[in-house]
Amino acid sequence: MKRRGFLSAAIAAVAVGGAGAATLYKMRREPAVRSRLLAWFERIDPLARRIHEHFSELTLDTAGVDAFVEDYRALGFESLSTRDNSDFYLTYLASTDYFDETRVADAPLAYVAFFHPYVSPCRNPFARFDDDA
Asked: FRET partner for 68 with CA separation of 20 to 30 A, picked from 26, 53, 119, 123?
C-alpha cells in the first residue's frame, strides 16, 4: 500500500469515527434527537413519541406512556390526537402522579389511571378536600 492510499483510508476512518462520536454526543445532550433516533430504530408509537418529545425534560416511565396510549385509543380519543393540542398533554399529566403531593421529584412519572371526568370521575388529581385538616 502506498502512502497516498494509506492517508486516504486514514482520513476516511477519522471522518466516519468523528461522525459517530458527534451523533453519540448529540444523543446524550439533546433528548429530542435521542427520541427521534430511538423512534427510528425501535419504531415507537407516534403518540408515545409525541409525549416523550414534549416532556423531554421529565423522566418518563416508558411502560406507563404505552399504557396511557393504549387507554387513550381504547376510549376513542384517537381523532383528537391528530392535531397538536394541549389537552392531549394535560390529559397525560393528569393521568400520572405529576400533581400528587407525595411524589418524589427525581422519580419517573408513573401512570396511575386515565383521567377523564366523564369516564373515570373518581380520580381527580386537582381535588383538595377542606375537611382533611
From this structure: 26
